[in-house]
Specification:
Layout (H helix, E strand, L loop, with lengths): L2 H7 L22 H11 L3 H8 L17 H6 L8 E2 L20 H19 L7 H9 L5 E4 L7 E8 L1 H13 L3 H8 L1 H8 E4 L6 E8 L3 E8 L1 E4 H11 L12 E4 L5 E4 L1 E7 L2 E6 L4 E4 L9 H5 L6 H11 L11 H9 L2 H15 L3 H33 L4 E5 L5 E5 L8 E3 L5 E2 L3 E4 L3 E5 L1 H4 L5 E3 L19 E2 L4 E6 L7 E6 L5 H10 L7 H30 L4 H15 L4 H18 L2 E3 L3 H6 L4 E4 L11 E7 L20 H8 L4 E3 L2 E3 L2 H10 L2 E4 L15 E4 L8 H10 L2 H8 L10 E10 L4 E8 L6 E6 L1 H7 L9 H10 L3 E9 L6 H6 L2 H4 L4 E9 L6 H10 L3 E5 L4 H11 L8 E8 L18 E8 L24 E2 L18 E4 L1 E2 L2 E6 L2 E6 L8 E2 L12 E5 H10 L1 H10 E5 L3 H13 L4 E5 ...
Helix pairs in contact: 8-9, 10-12, 13-15, 14-15, 14-19, 15-37, 18-19, 18-36, 20-36, 20-37, 27-31, 33-43, 36-38, 36-39, 37-39, 37-40, 38-39, 38-42, 39-40, 39-42
Length: 1454
């Protein structure tokens, strides 16, 4: 039995069955016979084992009786019980897997088989016979677990703890709540898990009434969820059944709730304990003593399982619906009252309400009313926005419509899509539909628009899932056979009268669309230093407030002040030091930045991410569709001749002869006709359109040619008469068309090469290929045409069909940045008929192919790519390319766009299986131990920047491009020896040999023998080591990540090109870069980049489809120009946030100092003065502060500060605060020296006016205005302050008002503000002088001391110093610079300057090759073929090279 069977068999179904009876069974040793039997079964494939146990029937089999699984009866009658596994049809385990539909078995046979099955299961499980007493006793002692892990070893792993109600704790908690006046309950509302801990006690998970779930995000954030455990029982099931099927009797003991965890084993439960967390349902699993996620039928399920199922009965559907829930994606919806209540209890608004109540008590009505109105407005806007978002999301997931469901009798019944459950079989209508569940396609073909999920607007063809017994279904691997929820079926294709059927695997929240919605509802927390520091700073301000509170309390009590006044004034200090308007002010900068981004067609769904974007120092880019154009242009084709050599490149594809290479281009695609237009992948469309052939869909095919719809798509050759004879003539000279015609038995006069596509194996990124089975309509037999990556097809083709210079030719075109597609074919056995063709597996079809040639496409850079990359490079922002394309193509594009400079060396990293080191020994890949070593291949940049390769096909190739290659056909590492260098090539040393890797081939030669007409440089030039970068492919990246963690960090620090990366690897790479303390931006077109966009600090999607929801930023202009725009706005918003925070903190501290001084004489600022300061100055400044736009010049190298708790902001605040205190205290003492001064005598609370009040108000008002000006920074992150005219206007107006109030206020103004103006004009002028001197002092402090000395001279130097920086990647860079001999590249070869030979060696195709057959003796004979131009110079040149490397390899010209 397989492990999953053992697990299913070892689990009793009833919830409260004692687990001790079962868990120990795998440990048993008694009964050798049984152990041998089990061991024998384990060697069988999973399904074969099941079928060995269960010889069953499908449609024609009568339903079996369900077993009674009542837990009490099981415990009472141990000898008679049988554990029950639930199959897809909710029957007992005996029928969980069935034989094909048409094979029937007699009832007698069925019964005997049932006995056989009963006997087998009882021998394996029956505790009354085989039970180890000692182990069971140990198990009884083992306490029931209170803590466990949910989703163990998965990305969403969480810790779960069990709790049950404790009356004593609850009573004590509520007594404390009453004593604190409800304050404790408010705190427990903010931290719900504290309330759980206060009222409940820990208990085992099996008995828990509530569970505490703890999420830990990379050790930086912890989130807590408190969930109530609810119990489902068969009574609910019974009631629902009676409503649906009234009048029918049901045996209570046979009703059960089927739960699926994995492996298509449905476990039956009488009662089920579940809870819901993050829209997913978890159920108690007795076998593992923990809660497990209820999964759909896509976890560890064999592919053949889906084909062996029949429809579900009404009873089975209902049972599953109770467990899985209705088929709808749930979005938490709250009504307005609940939203209002929750919003009002937000800590920010609670503090504001506290402040307002306090101010009303203090008779400070005006400002209290203003703050109250602002709070009401803020709460209202928040509720409106939340409700709007809820409604939009609800509309997105709305599930309406009906589906045709196949029932247990095989009859289709129309049901609401909400009623679907996993296990249903549904019909896909020919007119198309929107999928409301995830389903596996069982028959027929579907064409889907998956843009909602992937961002790809290209329709995708889905084919039936192969019926393989030993292959486990995987949603990613079998994506081309899966119809995902939310995608649109545009049209279906079927053969004859067969229906298009699909098997439902997921419904509701566990579907693909449900996952997308969950990622919106529960985004990972943004790990951002500024916000963390701001909370710490507010705590620090609160500490100052507490000190002031205690000081005021003590001094007022000592002076015998009224108790109420003491409390109110002391509490008022808290509202002064921690300003209630601070959070609102902080969002203003982000609000303006969001508006400016929107004006640039960049939309942001997460405003908090804008500040994060300001710290970006590493940008990752996808290649195709991001750096380069989406579309491709046909450059030409390179067919293979009958002599197994590459022909001259042919630019005009229409001149290709009618042979297999052309037929491959014409048929091997997924193009469909919709509304009269051809739709498909841009690459497919370009290839097909270049041939001039005509595609006819089944709708357009004449009735007499439909062949019973055997060919859904027919390709017709263009009409020959339209082609001029002059153009057609060269076609026949290039090809052996006569041979082709002779093969199919046709004369020239009757040529008809129309093809029908019989079967299609769609393209998948992990297979890197697609293929079709076709038939020429005028001939017999079937052909297979396959196209894909050259690396993949090299492995699938017969070695004898590969040209000897395959790798060299490939490298030549790849280094020019071309997109290269290899084409191959094979003819199927003539005995294979149509039925057999439909049953062939993909592995059988795509095997032993014959290579035909290359299709070359140009992938041009977008117009602004190079300029944007250069601007990022100038700003010292690291640029990285992550692509799924060939590594040579990626290196070429990286050089073209500037990610790698023309003079920079590129080191390609290869992970080499250790056993491949010795070429002198016979290789045996079966003995591969999985151990790898890293080897490094160097490609030097050009010594002059003019060596950039042209794309015109006329470039001279340096000797570095004459690749040395040995084809290890078993090698699968696609790693490259770059040779684009115009200077030299380096061969890395592997013990005694120098190895160069080219595409999927190993290139090797003894270092002593290699000359290449070059001289070995005696003194190595290591200048390239100063700024080299690494390149690698996805396979190597995975090996380095898994086996070389120390090297990985160094390679990551210098890595710039990552090719052939899967979507998961892209995501993993972004996370690894973040672990090196990079702030990472990811820019992609949304297709395969969703994961990386989601985890990056700043994800910028260039796709407008719903899948772009994964990314915080979406650009409507599909170019990377959005990246610098987002970074500029992010930097501006970050500097604005810093400025506002510092200003609000400084304002509160200035007011704190003023009030503390006035409190010392029992005075205070008057209500009107407070009102003017808070409304007229602070609120207006804070509102306009963020209107300063982002700097529109070049991005600067220095990233703005991201931490408040760092020398610059702290020194700034401390120094400014010191100046504030000095000026206020100086003014205070100067006032006391005046001869006319009379000290304040407090008599009435309504008359706080005095000379001290005037002095403090005058000096502090100037300080508020000065600090607003000083903290409003301009270049290099924002435009100058005068560009923000509203702020400048308010500064000037307020400065004039304060000067007026200080120098010569009118009587009514003075009375309004309760200002007691000094009689001496000279003192008023002194106050103005104080303002002027304060302005100069604060400006000098901020611009020179803080910005220049502290920031530039100290902090920046310290952070940019590789040795002292606290950023991990900087310290790694410091270590790299200290390496003299790493990476270990030992031999440098200085090649001739190619300019000397520009007249020679025109694009001839030369390859220096060691023997390719490793099993044969390395006897090498030099051989020559004629060059493309039969010149004496070329022949002489080749002969010279051959003479120099005669001991190395063979020189072939083709």
């Amino acid at each position: 039995m397989s492990a999953s069977q053992s697990e299913g068999a070892a689990c009793l179904i009833a919830d409260n069955v004692c687990p001790e009876l079962l868990v120990l069974q795998p440990l048993q040793s008694n009964g050798n016979m049984q152990a041998e039997e089990q061991e024998g079964l384990l060697h069988l494939p999973r399904i074969a084992t099941k079928n060995n146990l269960l010889k069953l029937n499908w449609w024609h089999m009568p339903p079996t009786q369900q077993l009674d699984i009542d837990s009490n009866s099981i415990l009472a009658e141990q000898t008679d019980h049988l554990p029950t596994k639930m199959d897809n049809n909710n029957t007992a385990a005996r029928s969980s897997l069935n034989t094909p539909a048409k094979s029937t078995s007699s009832p007698t046979h069925h019964r005997s088989n049932e006995k056989h099955q009963r006997h087998k299961e009882s021998t394996i499980i029956d505790p009354s016979e085989d039970f180890d007493l000692q182990d069971s006793q140990l198990l009884v002692k083992d306490p029931k677990p209170c803590v466990a892990l949910l989703n163990q070893d998965q990305s969403d792993q969480m810790k779960i703890s069990g709790y049950r109600r404790c009356n004593i704790r609850s009573i004590l908690c509520w007594i404390c709540i009453v004593l604190t006046g409800g304050l404790l309950r408010l705190i427990l509302h903010w931290w719900r898990h504290w309330y759980l801990l206060a009222t409940c006690k820990p208990c085992s998970l099996q008995e828990a009434q509530q569970v505490l779930i703890e999420e830990d995000y990379q050790g930086n954030h912890k989130l807590y969820h408190v969930k109530t455990v609810r119990i489902l029982d068969v009574e609910q099931f019974k009631k629902s059944l009676q409503q649906i099927l009234p009048g029918e009797d049901f045996d209570d003991n046979k009703l059960q709730l089927p739960v699926h965890f994995a492996s298509a084993h449905f476990k039956g439960f009488r009662s089920l304990r579940t809870f819901r967390c993050k829209q997913l349902v978890y159920a108690w699993d007795n076998s593992i003593k923990s809660f497990q996620k209820i999964n759909g039928l896509d976890v560890n399920v064999p592919c053949s399982y889906y084909h062996q199922q029949r429809g579900l009965s009404v009873q089975e559907q209902l049972a599953r619906r109770i467990v899985f829930g209705e088929n709808e994606i749930t979005v938490p919806l709250r009504d307005v009252k609940t939203l209002l209540f929750l919003e009002a209890l937000n800590p920010f608004y609670v503090f504001q309400i506290f402040s307002v109540v306090l101010w009303f008590t203090y008779d400070y009505y005006y400002y209290a009313c203003v703050i109250l109105l602002m709070s009401i407005f803020g709460i209202s806007m928040s509720i409106v926005q939340t409700k709007k978002n809820q409604d939009v999301l609800q509309k997105t997931v709305l599930n309406t419509g009906n589906a045709w469901v196949v029932n247990a009798k095989g009859v289709s019944v129309e049901l609401s899509t909400k009623m679907l459950v996993p296990g249903d079989i549904i019909e896909i209508p020919s007119s198309g539909c929107t999928m409301q569940c995830d389903a596996v396609l069982l028959s027929g073909n579907c064409i889907l628009d998956e843009s909602m999920l992937t961002g790809e607007s290209v329709p995708v063809t889905k084919t039936p899932l192969p019926m393989k017994r030993d292959v486990i279904f995987d949603k990613k691997e079998h994506a081309r056979h899966t119809l995902f929820c939310g995608t649109k079926v545009i049209q279906t294709r079927y053969i004859g009268s067969k229906k298009v059927l699909a098997f439902v695997i997921n419904t509701g929240n566990i579907t693909a669309k449900g996952g997308l919605i969950r990622s919106i509802l529960y985004p990972p927390p943004v790990d951002y230093k500024f916000e963390q520091d701001s909370y710490k700073f507010i705590q620090f301000l609160a500490l100052i407030a507490c000190i002031g509170f205690i000081y005021t309390l003590v001094t007022k009590i000592l002076r015998g002040t009224d108790a109420v006044k003491i409390v109110v004034e002391s509490l008022d200090l808290i509202t002064i030091v921690v300003p209630p308007a601070l959070p609102a002010a902080m969002t203003v900068g982000r609000f303006y930045a969001q508006k400016r981004l929107k004006a640039n067609n960049i939309f942001c769904i997460s405003p908090r991410s804008i500040n994060v974007a300001g710290s970006i120092d590493c940008c990752c880019f996808d290649k195709t569709g991001t750096l380069t154009e989406d579309g491709l242009d046909m450059w030409g084709v390179v067919p293979k001749s009958s002599t197994n050599q590459f022909q001259i490149p042919l630019k005009d594809v229409k001149r290709l002869p009618y042979d297999h290479f052309l037929f491959g281009m014409v048929t091997c695609h997924s193009i469909t006709v919709m509304n009269g237009m051809m739709m498909g992948d841009p690459l497919d469309l370009k290839m097909f359109e270049s041939t001039g052939w005509i595609l006819e869909d089944s709708n357009n095919i004449p009735e007499n040619e439909k062949y019973g719809l055997i060919y859904p798509t027919i390709l017709r050759q263009p009409h020959r008469e339209e082609t001029p004879v002059a153009e057609a003539a060269p076609v026949f000279r290039q090809s052996s068309v006569d041979d082709l015609l002779a093969n199919v038995g046709l004369l020239k006069s009757k040529t008809n090469f129309d093809h029908g596509i019989v079967r299609e194996f769609p393209f998948t990124s992990n297979l890197q290929r697609m293929s079709v089975i076709t038939r020429c309509l005028s001939a017999q037999g079937f052909n297979v045409y396959c196209k894909g990556s050259p690396e993949m097809l090299q492995q699938l083709c017969q070695p004898q069909s590969m040209p000897n210079d395959y790798s060299h030719q490939l490298s030549i075109y790849a280094k020019k940045g071309f997109r290269i597609i290899a084409v191959a074919f094979k003819t199927l056995n003539p005995k294979v008929n149509y039925t057999k063709v439909q049953r062939l597996s993909r592995e059988e079809v795509e095997h032993n192919l014959e290579f035909l040639g290359f299709v070359i496409l140009e992938n041009r850079l977008k117009p602004d790519t190079t300029a944007v990359i250069n601007s990022l490079n100038m700003a010292n922002i690291r640029t990285v390319m992550i692509t799924g394309d060939n590594i040579l193509t990626a290196m070429s594009v990286a050089r073209d766009c500037g990610i790698v400079s023309a003079t920079q060396a590129v080191i390609t990293v290869h992970a080499v299986p250790v056993l491949m080191k010795g070429f002198d020994k016979q290789l045996n890949t079966d003995q591969n131990t999985g151990q790898y070593e890293l080897q490094y291949t160097l490609e030097l940049g050009s010594k002059t920047t003019c060596c950039t390769p042209a794309l015109n096909g006329n470039r001279t190739f340096s000797a570095a491009e004459i690749a040395l290659d040995v084809d290890l056909s078993k090698s699968t590492n696609s790693l490259v020896n770059g040779g684009m260098s115009c200077a030299s090539s380096v061969l890395p040393n592997s013990n005694s040999l120098a190895s160069v890797k080219t595409i999927d081939t190993w290139t090797h030669n003894d270092g002593d023998d290699v000359e290449l007409g070059a001289t070995v440089v005696s003194q190595r030039n290591d200048s390239w080591r100063r700024q080299y970068i690494f390149a690698m492919d996805g396979k190597t990246w995975q090996i380095v990540k898994d086996q070389f963690p120390q090297q990985m960090e160094i390679i990551l620090t210098r890595g710039a090109i990552y090719a052939r990366m899967s979507p998961e690897q892209k995501q993993s790479l972004v996370l690894e870069l973040q672990s090196l303390d990079y702030y990472v931006a990811m820019c992609g077109d949304g297709a395969n980049d969703c994961g990386a966009l989601k985890v990056a600090h700043t994800g910028i999607s260039l796709s407008e489809t719903e899948s772009s929801i994964a990314s915080p930023f979406t650009s409507r202009n599909p170019t990377i120009a959005a990246v610098p725009n987002v970074i500029k706005e992010g930097r501006a918003a970050l500097v604005t946030s810093f400025g506002i925070f510092k200003y609000m903190a400084a304002y509160s501290l200035v007011q704190f100092v003023s009030v503390m001084i006035l409190y010392s004489i029992d005075s205070n600022l008057t209500d009107k003065q407070y009102l003017y300061i808070d409304l007229g100055l602070i609120s207006i400044f804070a509102f306009f502060f963020g209107k300063t736009e982002a700097y529109d010049g070049q991005l600067v190298k220095q990233v703005p500060l991201s931490s408040l708790i760092s020398p610059t902001p702290l020194s700034s605040l401390v120094l400014h605060l010191a100046v504030v205190v000095i000026f206020q205290v100086a003014g205070w003492f100067q006032l006391h020296q005046q001869p006319w001064f009379k000290p304040f005598r407090p008599s009435d609370e309504d008359h706080l006016g005095c000379y001290e009040n005037y002095t403090m108000f005058a000096i502090s008002s100037f300080q508020y205005i000065i600090l607003a000006f000083v903290f409003s920074k301009g270049a290099p992150y924002r435009k100058p302050i005068w560009s923000n005219w509203p702020l400048c206007l308010t500064l000037v107006i307020n400065a004039c008002i304060v000067v007026y109030l200080v120098a010569y206020p009118s009587d009514w103004i003075a009375n309004f503000f309760q200002l007691i103006v000094p009689p001496d004009m000279s003192f008023r002028y002194i106050m103005l002088l104080y303002g002027a001197v304060a302005f100069i002092t604060h400006a000098f402090l901020e611009s020179f001391v803080v910005e220049y000395l502290v920031f530039k001279r100290f902090q920046v130097r310290r952070e940019q110093n590789l040795k002292t920086s606290n950023r991990k990647y900087m310290r790694l860079e410091y270590n790299i610079k200290s390496f003299d001999n790493w990476p270990p590249i030992t031999e440098v070869y200085d090649l001739h300057d190619p300019a000397d030979h520009e007249a020679e060696l025109q694009p001839t195709y030369v390859n220096l090759s060691a023997e390719q057959n490793l099993d044969a003796q390395p006897t090498i004979f030099p051989g020559f073929f004629e060059t493309s131009e039969n010149s004496a110079e070329n022949r002489h040149r080749v002969a010279t090279i051959n003479a120099q490397v005669s001991s190395t390899g063979e020189v072939r010209h083709s």
